[in-house]
Amino acid sequence: MKPKKRLLIIKIITLSSFFSLFFIGANAHAKSECLAQTKLDPIKNALKKLSDSYGDVPSSIDCQSVDNKDVETLTCSNDLLSIMERLDTQAYVYAYENATKQAANHKTRIDSDWVAETRDNAKSENDLCNLYKEHTTNSLGDASSPYVKKEENTEPEEINDKVAGPSFSVKINLSKKAKAKLSKINEKIIINSMFNGNGEGKKETEGDPQEVNLGDFEVEVDLDETATFNKIYFPKEAVNRLTHSQNYQLTLNIVSARKADDFNLLDCSFVSEEVQSIEGKTIIVPCKLIGKYAVSSKYEIK
Predict the structure, then answer these.
(1) Which of 6, 15, 102, 115 has its CA 20 to 30 A from that of 297?
(2) pLDDT digit string (tens) for 40-58?
(3) Quick check: pTM over 0.85?
(4) b vs e for 91-121, b when ≥16 Cβ sit within 10 Å of the residue's Cβ?
(5) Of the candidates 138, 147, 203, 140, which has an alpha carbon nearest to the alpha carbon of residue 34?
(6) Which of 125, 261, 136 shows the shortest CA–CA distance to 190?
(7) What is the C-alpha separation between 274 and 254, in angstroms, rounded?
(8) Distance of CA 220 to the CA centre of its chain
(9) Vertex 300, ends 40 and 177: CA angle to 5°?
(10) Nearest CA to 81 among 27, 47, 126, 49?
(11) Residue 218: left (phi > 0), alpha (psi -120 to 50), or beta?
(12) Separation between Cα atoms, residue 72 and residue 76, nearest integer Å
């Protein structure tokens, strides 16, 4: 009977070892699942877009002096989590300033409650990865978050008799004098986007028989607000008259809102681009006070 008992003990130990390895493997998979589904390049691109205004916002975790908190150790030991943390910190400051219309102290973490009550309670890489994704997306919105999968369409989206246009943003860089003047009188800015392309125009309504006017769309913004154009739709019949349905032009006309002052006060860089070059990007447009010698510098696309 002794050999049988010994055999039974060996079987129990073997099964115990198997289940231990199974749970360890499952836990390792859970840890890495979120990170495995996360791509680095979109995060870098999102950071690049924020860098001009928020590049001075420091990381909330100093990896040179980690105090052995789980979150700090997890973040500093993983390059992907580290860059996700930097984006999350900058994104929240961006969201705060856009929501409150007030400048924040870029050297102070302004969402300390979320850090203490939510982030610092993460116990694994998977937990932390998911928390960064959720918090960053709440700050940037689905359209700008690198964690929200964007639909890839080779053809323009159609809704009934309309076709979806491009999605892009416009940020106005005011000169000091222009900003001071508009702030003093509490004036806003109007950004008008106009779209046209080559094709079979309507002579009676569009003038040039080779030009198709797709429409224009106006957004009013505060001085430090970024305009987002993401719900643009063109008449399907107009798109069908284009020579190339995805090759048409965007032109921007930017003026002061003429609410506090009857006259336009801004001289902005002239923007004219093929839509393919601005899809999903931000156009940064410099503007000065209008005047005899006011000539604004070239705009940028990021």
Answers:
(1) 102
(2) 989 998 998 888 888 888 8
(3) no
(4) bbbbbebeeeeeebebeebbbeebbeeebee
(5) 147
(6) 261
(7) 18
(8) 20
(9) 125
(10) 126
(11) beta
(12) 6
Amino acid at position 43, single letter: I
With beta carbons less than 8 A apart as the criterion, state whether 146 and 132 touch. no
Q: HEC profile for the chain?
A: CHHHHHHHHHHHHHHHHHHHHHHHHHHHHHHHHHHHCCCHHHHHHHHHHHHHHHCCCCCCCCCCCCCCCHHHHHHHCCHHHHHHHHHHHHHHHHHHHHHHCCCCCCCCCCCHHHHHHCHHHCCCHHHHHHHHHHHHHHHHCCCCCCCCCCCCCCCCCEECCEEECCCEEEEEEECHHHHHHHHHCCCCEEEEEEEEEEECCCHHHHCCCCEEEEEEEEEEECCCCCEEECCCEEEHHHHHCECCCCCCEEEEEEEECCCCCCCCCEEECCEEEEHHHCCCCEEEEEEEECCCCCCCCCCEEC
Amino acid identity at 54: Y
With both helix axes pointing from N to C terminus, report the angle between 79-100 and 40-54 in degrees, rounded to the nearest 10.
40
- Position of tokens 């080559």? 198
Residue that is written with structure tokens 């006011």 in the block: 294
User: What does pLDDT average to in each consecutive run of 10 residues of the chain (302 residues)?
Assistant: 47 43 40 83 89 85 73 88 92 84 78 83 89 91 82 54 88 92 94 87 53 88 89 87 79 91 90 90 92 72 82
Q: Kindly compute the dihedral angle of the four CA atoms of residues 94, 96, 100, 105, in this order, to the nearest 10 degrees.
A: -90
As given in the structure block, the two tokens for residue 203 are: 């002579």
